[in-house]
Design goal:
Blueprint lengths: L1 E5 L3 E5 L2 E5 L1 H11 L3 E9 L2 H13 L6 E4 L4 E8 L2 E6 L12 H8 L2 E7 L7 H13 L1 E8 L9 H10 L2 E5 L2 H8 L7 H7 L5 E5 L5 E5 L2 E5 L12 H14 L4 H16 L10 H7 L2
Parallel strand pairs: 1-4, 1-8, 2-6, 4-5, 8-9, 9-10, 10-11
Antiparallel strand pairs: 2-3, 6-7, 11-12, 12-13
């Protein structure tokens, strides 16, 4: 799989430590660990965190050809965990609010064929980054457009969601985001998914529901994967790992049910470990068949 991701790169700052994160980066990190390749369209500050981020991206094997340098500081989010569930506060403005590519970068990016473009709403909170995403959505040649709704605080609105939906072939959201998106479009929560598929042309809708597992809806029906009973360390990045594995196994030709079950296996593993992109052990690799 050859993936391109657009959006925020930030450090998740906990009591006593920090880890590199941001939903688009997390997805790419797992795609790399699963055997794929990927590049990120984002921006970093000309600062210590920016230099550390570039070192970490190189370690993860994530392409940096479309990574800009901003006058704003490298992004971070302070995270407080309550019963393993994260709450966020973001620095503003951050480098990823000012994602701007050169014409040469656009030319090289648009000349390639990608298996998937991954994006969300958070990086659209600033007009500059939103305009960059708009151009990507108009010109990138990709088989799938994966829209991870990923609502954070009040950094979203109908314009950002609509921009994401226009080209989306796969939409991912959690069960708490379903009624929010439904309200934006005047839909009932129980009819939103069918509306996305039948009226907006989305091929698949992924809905994660925490301990209740995850579902994938399509015109062919619905498949479900349960969560395993694991000791939760933290849930940061769990949904991103599920996204990555689902996309990876779909690209390998797996049926939707199998792709979702393997994706759930990875998410179960991630919630049992600290950080959004933990190292994979041999047992996990064996279970996933990688």
């Amino acid at each position: 799989m050859k993936a391109l991701a657009f959006g925020e790169i930030l450090w998740d700052v906990f009591d006593g430590g920090r880890t590199l994160g941001g939903a688009p980066l997390n997805v790419l990190g797992h795609i790399r660990k699963l055997g794929g390749e990927g590049s990120i369209v984002s921006a970093l500050g000309d600062d210590e965190l920016g230099a550390l981020t570039r070192f970490r991206l190189e370690d993860l094997g994530i392409g940096m050809d479309y990574l800009a340098t901003s006058d704003c500081p490298t992004g971070y989010a302070r995270i407080q965990l309550v019963d393993g569930v994260p709450g966020y506060s973001f620095c503003t403005p951050a480098a990823w609010d000012r994602i701007r590519l050169t014409e040469d970068q656009y030319d090289r990016l648009f000349a390639q064929d990608w298996d998937v473009l991954i994006y969300g709403t958070l990086a659209q909170r600033d007009g500059q980054s939103a305009a960059t995403l708009e151009r990507l959505l108009s010109c990138v040649k990709a088989t799938e457009f994966f829209f991870d709704v990923n609502l954070r605080l009040d950094y979203y609105g109908l314009e950002a969601v609509e921009r994401g939906l226009k080209k989306a072939t796969i939409v991912k959201m959690n069960d708490e985001e379903v009624p929010v998106i439904a309200s934006l479009y005047g839909q009932r929560p129980d009819s939103l998914i069918s509306w996305l598929i039948e009226e907006r042309g989305v091929s698949k809708v992924l809905v994660t529901s925490g301990k209740r597992g995850s579902d994938c809806y399509s015109a062919e029906g619905c498949c479900h994967a349960d969560c395993a009973k694991v000791r939760v360390v933290d849930t940061v990045g769990a949904g991103d790992s599920l996204s990555a594995a689902f996309l990876h196994f779909l690209s390998k030709g797996c049926p939707c049910q199998e792709a979702l079950e393997r994706a759930s296996m990875l998410a179960d593993y991630v919630v049992g470990h600290a950080g959004a992109i933990p190292d994979y052990d041999d047992e996990l690799r064996r279970k996933l068949g990688i």
